[in-house]
Amino acid sequence: MGMPRFPALLLAVALFVPAFGGDLRDGPLKDLNGYFPFTPPTDAATWTSERAAIRNRLQVALGLLPMPTRTPLNAVIHGKIDGGEYTIEKVYFESAPGLFVTGNLYRPKQITGKAPVVLFAHGHWKDARFLVQDADYVRKEIATGQETFTEGGKSRFQSLCVQLARMGCIVWQWDTLSDSDSVQFAPEVIHRFAKQRPEMNDPQSWGLYSAPAEARLQSVMGLQTWNALRSVDFVLSLPDVDPTRVAATGASGGGTQTMMLAALDERIALSFPAVMVSTAMQGGCSCENASLLRIGQGNVHFAALFAPKPQGMTTANDWTKEMSTKGFPQLRQLYTTLGYPEAVMLHRDEASPHNYNQAARKAFYGWLNTHFRLGQPMPIQERDYKVLTKAELSVWDKSHPAPLAASPEFERRLLRWFADDSAAQFQQATPVARTALLRDYVQAVLGKAVRPNDVQASTETPQTLSAHIETRGVLTHATRGESVHFTALQPAKSNDRTVLWLRDDGQAALLTADGKVRTHFLALLEQGFTVLAPDLYLQGGTKISHTRRVKETRAVPAYTFGYNDALVAQRAHDVELLTIYARQTFRGQLAVVSAGDASISAVLAGYHQAPDAAYFATAGFRFAQLKDVHDLQFLPGGAKYGDLPGLIDGLPMAASVVRWTDDPKARDEDALAWLKTAFSPRR
């Protein structure tokens, strides 16, 4: 066989690609302070596809694919307080067995028919639901125009709830984890996590932020989003709620929760995230980050998922201050493309600090009044009221005692319940449903599949040796800038079958110490096989023991893996490039033979670019057993869907052409023996 046959496209682009150029993956890691632009689609059909991919990654990243079992809420409503035009009640319910959600329920006294409901997620203000500012603080707020009333100005959050109730809305304000009446986790764990806890990193009994938790996509952000989803379940269980008029709002971290809730729950009809939607900083708290979440996407993408439903947002003198020129115009363009340009609104207030001040609240009232047809005279003005104290609003009392506070054992038990529930759903799913879950997961991990036109190839002049032709080259992804180096050995006479040989020693697997082709590869060449061996990303040079992490003092895995691909996913991209190149360049059928860490990447790549046959020597590896998130084999969510055996079983290939072994003593000879029977009869 002569020179490899490159498609015309590959020959053309090869002229413009440096033979051994750099790899964009070697550059700085992305972090939460990066730039996250949103490019709107040009038509509605394109957005339908893009929206599905964004929403899928969001759901996967938050550990909500599949959705956890909706267990009984066991809601308790008690301690009614008379506010004159409205009442305030104290509520707690279980979002999952033993996990309590706490808050206050505001109801107008005069309800005609069923009332609209507003779910209000507060942000990172200490004891936010109980927040009452002192007189000096209020005077400064009034002086700068942030508030109006010396009494009502003490609590911006009570002010919002009271005014909405006066407008005829039911309001549910609930606590984020470890805030106000939520006592089952310590604030240091939920909002101020800094240092890993070795005692919570046990593969059999683990806590948040650990390798076992990340391998199952368990995060604080996921838990809080689940509480928000169950909050919708709770308010819709109330007999006086109009299920067609459900709104969500929140500021800062509450704005993050508003975006998540609106993006994932179709029951939300109106969204108003305040001082959060931005192409800049994405949310600094550990509770606003999750592995996989913002790889190639950001908060504007999540806000876009709500289109074309009514959505308002606000800016301040914070990371949102450029939203009017970076982010919102693109959102408006999307809404315009979908036919609803007036259904998205930006209230600008770059002169004010990070807030949910009176002006921002008024913007929300007007937006809600218009779209929910409340019939209130505009502009809506707040009225003063008597601010309630922590003692008056608190859910827990002698008759309703609080659960055990900040219990590590409860944390372990809760995460185990979510893990067991997810595993049971996966195992009990039909084969079709299981395949769909695996496909969606891998799509979230790898992003868009590599397309043939993405592959740019550059090769050295082939060397004709005694019994074969040797070609060295580099493949580059046209837009990602990811590169993989390879060596191809072609026989004098081809049997139209190619073997992609993936080992942790990369191209070196082909050669002996003195540079000669190893005997078993010579045997393959004699049989007519073409052999392709690459250095996957970070193979072939100085050996590494751990993956990189972002420059962040807090040991939260999501700060790295929420914005950057895991190493095994990066290497899977390389395998995709190689698979396409092999199919385009060499005739006939393709087999992938892999061992060690490379086998994990080969499995993932098989979901996007399936070979004709595959051999995986996994040496008994399981994601669930890892104890270090910076292990070379770590993959967010790797243990969630049947672990590595589940991923292999779900490959879009007939079982008859897949061979995998856990035997740590598996040899190259075993793979060579398999190759003789792996392919279908020669056509």
What report would you give on this structure?
The protein is of the alpha/beta class and 683 residues long. The chain has 2 domains: 8-30 and 448-678, Rossmann fold, CATH 3.40.50; 50-387 and 408-425, Alpha/Beta hydrolase fold, catalytic domain (Rossmann fold). 31% of the residues lie in helices and 18% in strands. The protein has 20 helices and 20 strands. It has helices at residues 8-14, 44-61, 135-143, 156-166, 187-190, 211-214, 220-236, 253-264, 299-304, 328-337, 358-371, 390-393, 408-428, 431-446, 519-526, 558-561, 567-585, 597-608, 643-649, 668-678; strands at residues 76-82, 86-96, 99-108, 115-121, 170-174, 201-202, 205-206, 241-251, 270-274, 311-314, 344-347, 455-459, 463-464, 468-477, 483-491, 497-502, 529-535, 589-595, 613-617, 658-661. Strands 12, 13, 14, 15, 16, 17, 18, 19 and 20 form a 9-stranded mixed beta sheet that branches. The two termini are 18 Å apart.
Summarize the structure.
The protein contains 20 helices and 20 strands. It has helices spanning 8-14, 44-61, 135-143, 156-166, 187-190, 211-214, 220-236, 253-264, 299-304, 328-337, 358-371, 390-393, 408-428, 431-446, 519-526, 558-561, 567-585, 597-608, 643-649, 668-678, and strands at residues 76-82, 86-96, 99-108, 115-121, 170-174, 201-202, 205-206, 241-251, 270-274, 311-314, 344-347, 455-459, 463-464, 468-477, 483-491, 497-502, 529-535, 589-595, 613-617, 658-661. The model is unreliable at 1-20 (pLDDT under 50).
User: How much is the radius of gyration in Å?
Assistant: 28 Å
Could you name the ranges where pLDDT drops below 50 across 5 or more consecutive residues? Answer: 1-20
Per the CATH scheme, the topology name of the largest domain is Rossmann fold
In total, how many beta strands?
Answer: 20
CA-CA gap between termini: 18 Å
SS content category: alpha/beta
**Tally of separate helices:** 20
Percent of residues in helices comes to 25-40%
Beta-strand residue fraction: 15-25%
The CATH architecture of the largest domain comes to: 3-Layer(aba) Sandwich
Overall pLDDT confidence: 94
